[in-house]
């Protein structure tokens, strides 16, 4: 944990100076102490700092959301992006945004989170209905992917018929991007994410019992029905907050928990929840830095970077799981 914290702090300062305009460490501290500086203050304090803070908060949130979903479904390849939950949130947010913009009004940050949460719950509800019909978890994941593609396709139709002046912003957001994040967005996302993480951490003991089987958890006095509802709500709130402010980000929620299990050599929630947060924050921050700087001044979507970097891990998981089931 200490190593990950130090790595995160180091990467934080690297990303502050890394970009289309390279800024030295000395200039970073000068701009932080004197944010009124017209050039450096605007770049560091008004543009890069809120974006980097959001990447840390939302990347960690997405990873913890994936961990909670993997516990809920008892499957290491479950995640908000793979199961179509992020895409469901994206669809409802796009619908609300286009409707509000057509009326000449802008949706508030809390309104976006609420819309994304509703979309997450709808997608989660569909996946859970399918889980009652489909007992094979690999087939359930395929169904989740199909739900995701369907929601994404509908979202693209919605964006195609949006007002011309808003198409670019909607399109960038729909692909996943931290561009344009404001301090207001950071404040709201920080409150939602930190409160949800505290609730998740408090539930570490019953979640740990649930991991060992429903019968064991019941014998330990855990209310299985209530715990499952809480897992759904907590994971949906976290993934909805990420989607509302940054759009759908692929593979972080599924790959990072597996990486953390390998590094920490445990699946205990009391260790994995903070571990997943740090791991998700580090990987998301690194990927966002690459997305905005690798082809500067052109910026690519963060999902493109996370897909290239993390999809091999997901493929490995699928292959390993198949080998175990055949073995």
UniProtKB/TrEMBL annotation:
Alphabetized SUPFAM superfamilies for the sequence: ABC transporter involved in vitamin B12 uptake, BtuC
GO MF term set: transmembrane transporter activity
Biological process per Gene Ontology, one example term: siderophore-iron import into cell
Topology versus the membrane: Multi-pass membrane protein
Record GO cellular component, one term: plasma membrane
This protein's UniProt keywords: Cell membrane, Membrane, Transmembrane, Transmembrane helix, Transport
Superkingdom field: Bacteria
Entry keyword Cell membrane: yes
Keyword Transmembrane attributed: yes
One Pfam short name: FecCD
Membrane spanning residue stretches: 52-74, 81-101, 107-130, 137-162, 186-208, 229-257, 269-288, 300-319
Localization per Swiss-Prot or TrEMBL: Cell membrane
Record-stated family: Belongs to the binding-protein-dependent transport system permease family. FecCD subfamily.
PANTHER family given in the database record: FERRIC ENTEROBACTIN TRANSPORT SYSTEM PERMEASE PROTEIN, TRANSPORT SYSTEM PERMEASE PROTEIN
Protein name: Iron ABC transporter permease
């Amino acid at each position: 944990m200490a190593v990950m914290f130090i790595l995160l702090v180091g990467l934080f300062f690297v990303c502050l100076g890394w970009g289309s305009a390279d800024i030295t460490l000395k200039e970073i501290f000068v701009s932080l102490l004197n944010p009124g500086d017209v050039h450096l203050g605007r770049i560091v304090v008004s543009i890069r700092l809120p974006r980097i803070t959001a990447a840390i908060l939302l990347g960690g949130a997405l990873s913890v959301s994936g961990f909670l979903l993997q516990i809920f479904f008892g499957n290491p390849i479950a995640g908000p992006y793979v199961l179509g939950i992020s895409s469901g949130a994206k669809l409802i947010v796009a619908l609300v945004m286009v409707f509000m913009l057509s009326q000449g009004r802008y949706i508030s940050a809390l309104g976006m989170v609420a819309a994304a949460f509703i979309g997450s719950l709808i997608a989660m509800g569909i996946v859970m209905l399918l889980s009652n019909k489909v007992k094979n978890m690999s087939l359930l994941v395929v169904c989740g992917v199909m739900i995701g593609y369907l929601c994404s396709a509908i979202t693209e139709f919605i964006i195609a018929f949006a007002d011309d002046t808003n198409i670019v912003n909607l399109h960038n957001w729909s692909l996943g991007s931290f561009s344009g994040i404001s301090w207001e967005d950071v404040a709201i996302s920080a409150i939602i994410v930190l409160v949800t993480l505290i609730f998740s951490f408090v539930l570490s003991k019953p979640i740990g019992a649930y991991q060992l089987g429903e019968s064991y958890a019941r014998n330990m006095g855990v209310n299985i029905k209530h715990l499952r509802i809480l897992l759904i709500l907590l994971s949906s709130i976290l993934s909805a907050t990420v989607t509302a402010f940054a759009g759908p980000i692929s593979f972080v929620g599924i790959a990072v928990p597996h990486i953390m299990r390998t590094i920490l050599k445990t699946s205990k929630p009391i260790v994995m929840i903070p571990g997943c947060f740090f791991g998700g924050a580090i990987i998301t921050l690194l990927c966002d830095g690459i997305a905005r700087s690798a082809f500067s001044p052109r910026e690519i979507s963060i999902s493109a970077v996370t897909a290239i970097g993390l999809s091999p891990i997901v493929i490995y998981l699928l292959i390993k799981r198949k080998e175990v089931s055949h073995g």
